Amino acid sequence: MDHPVTRPQLHLGLTSGRDTDASAWFLAVLSESPILDGSVTVHFGLVGVGPILLPLFFLRSTRGQRHILLETSLNPFQADLQGLKLLRCLSTQDSYQIHCRELATNTEQTFTVPNVHQAQYRQAVKLLEAHSPWTATQFVQAQFHLARSWATPEERYKNLLCSPDPNAFDA
To answer: Rounded to whole angstroms, how far apart are CA atoms 152 and 171?
Structure first.
């Protein structure tokens, strides 16, 4: 008999401090013991869905047979342009700070990973600054269409470097 495998609850976010150093970092919340460590790789891409450009971030870690893939995106044009500010921060940072919390034991760990995407972030900021802003509703619709076309984080990760046909995401 085939039983569905329950996937652990994973959450990833990107945030910044309110201090003067203008740094951005990832926050990961995991329901089970994290396997994240200094071998984590960060992947970034800007995916066009119709007129919307979705910044996607993936944290990936492999230890033995265990794999973890965390995904998040941000809306550069949310009300206070916080998403665009985060991309600007990332374009100047030499490394990523990744803070993890395991809910079951309430343990935390923090580690640093080199930022090899500074040029990509600068290019993304230039593209977005030249782009017409979109609404929050348009952004959520674009996320929905992307998820409908590439249903899992694994699919989105594999297709990150591919240029999707914008018509593939039309409603």
So the answer is: 19
